[in-house]
């Protein structure tokens, strides 16, 4: 059984550019959530995908968007990057149902310069 | 809205000493509570979870937490600290938004273990 994997592990982008982060969910998990963790902070919920549809969203602007594919893997896209977007982006997968535990990947460290 | 508050951004203990990391929650419904650990440059690993089955929850690596409704607390403890326990610890509450569940995290407590 493979865990949650994210790619790339590190990324440097220039302000105004666009970025795509990828996540493969744990085997058997059909729900994927994305979190942003700024330096020294707890993770903040961006959005969740279930059955290829957005299924809940946190307080993030529309330039943060995502996709989920039939194999339950997911992408996070961020347009018009800002310096404040620099953070660790965490993907978490969970099985069907509410209040189930989430399993996290190792994260993608995004630096915007 | 459900939330958690972690008291103490930094906690330092000696190896072999008791570890106590504090978490208080705010919730209008019975909460689902979690403790996660994050090692440097890593993702989050689940230590334990409370889902109303038992108030004392045992987790991995010798950690446990007790749910106290009267105190709205879910403090994390370990009887004897080990150097390998040095990490960032996050308390979280699960919030349902329709068919989705999201985790709302505290700001974290950095545990330092000294010789």
Descriptive notes:
- The complex is a heterodimer of chains A (113) and B (115).
- Chain A is mainly beta and 113 residues long.
- Chain A is built from no helices and 11 strands.
- In chain A, the strands form 2 sheets. In chain A, strands 2, 4, 5, 6, 9, 10 and 11 form a 7-stranded mixed beta sheet that branches. A 4-stranded antiparallel beta sheet of chain A has the order 1-3-8-7, with no helix packed on it.
- Chain A is globular.
- With 115 residues, chain B is mostly beta strands.
- Helices cover 0% and strands 60% of the residues of chain B.
- Chain B starts with a strand and ends with a strand.
Task: Write down the Rg of chain B.
Answer: 14 Å
Share of residues in strands of chain A: over 45%
Mean pLDDT of chain B: 93
- Count of DSSP H/I helices of chain B: 0
In total, the number of strands of chain B is 11
What class would the helix/strand composition of chain A place it in? Answer: mainly beta
Distance between the termini of chain B: 41 Å
Question: What are the segments of chain A in which pLDDT stays under 50 over at least 5 consecutive residues?
Answer: none
The low-pLDDT segments of chain B are none
Q: Which radius of gyration of chain A do the C-alpha atoms yield?
A: 13 Å
Secondary structure: elements and pairs:
The complex is a heterodimer of chains A (113) and B (115).
Chain A: E1 5-7, E2 10-13, E3 19-24, E4 31-37, E5 44-50, E6 53-57, E7 64-68, E8 74-78, E9 87-94, E10 103-104, E11 108-112
Parallel strand pairs in A: 2-11
Antiparallel strand pairs in A: 1-3, 3-8, 4-5, 4-9, 5-6, 7-8, 9-10, 9-11
Chain B: E1 3-7, E2 10-14, E3 19-26, E4 32-38, E5 44-50, E6 56-58, E7 64-68, E8 73-78, E9 87-97, E10 100-105, E11 109-114
Parallel strand pairs in B: 2-11
Antiparallel strand pairs in B: 1-3, 3-8, 4-5, 4-9, 6-7, 7-8, 9-10, 9-11
What is this structure, in a nutshell?
The complex is a heterodimer of chains A (113) and B (115). With 113 residues, chain A is mainly β. Chain A has strands at residues 5-7, 10-13, 19-24, 31-37, 44-50, 53-57, 64-68, 74-78, 87-94, 103-104, 108-112.
């Amino acid at each position: 059984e493979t865990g949650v994997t994210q790619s790339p592990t590190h990324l440097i982008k220039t302000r105004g550019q666009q970025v795509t982060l990828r996540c493969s969910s744990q085997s058997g998990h059909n729900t994927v959530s994305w979190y942003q963790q700024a330096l020294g902070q707890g993770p903040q919920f961006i959005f969740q995908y279930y059955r290829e549809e957005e299924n809940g969203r946190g307080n993030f602007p529309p330039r943060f968007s995502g996709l989920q594919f039939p194999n339950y893997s997911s992408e996070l896209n961020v347009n018009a990057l800002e310096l404040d977007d620099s953070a660790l982006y965490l993907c978490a997968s969970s099985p069907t149902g509410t209040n189930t535990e989430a399993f996290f990947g190792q994260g993608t460290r995004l630096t915007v310069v | 809205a459900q939330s958690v508050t972690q008291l103490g951004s930094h906690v330092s203990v000696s190896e072999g000493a008791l570890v106590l990391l504090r978490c208080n929650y705010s919730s209008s419904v019975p909460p689902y509570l979690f403790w996660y650990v994050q090692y440097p440059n890593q993702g989050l690993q689940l230590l334990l979870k409370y889902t109303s089955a038992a108030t004392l929850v045992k987790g991995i690596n010798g950690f446990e937490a007790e749910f106290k409704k009267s105190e709205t607390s879910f403090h994390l403890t370990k009887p004897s600290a080990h150097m390998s326990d040095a990490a960032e610890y996050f308390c979280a509450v699960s919030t349902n938004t329709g068919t989705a569940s999201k985790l709302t995290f505290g700001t974290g407590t950095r545990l330092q273990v000294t010789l």
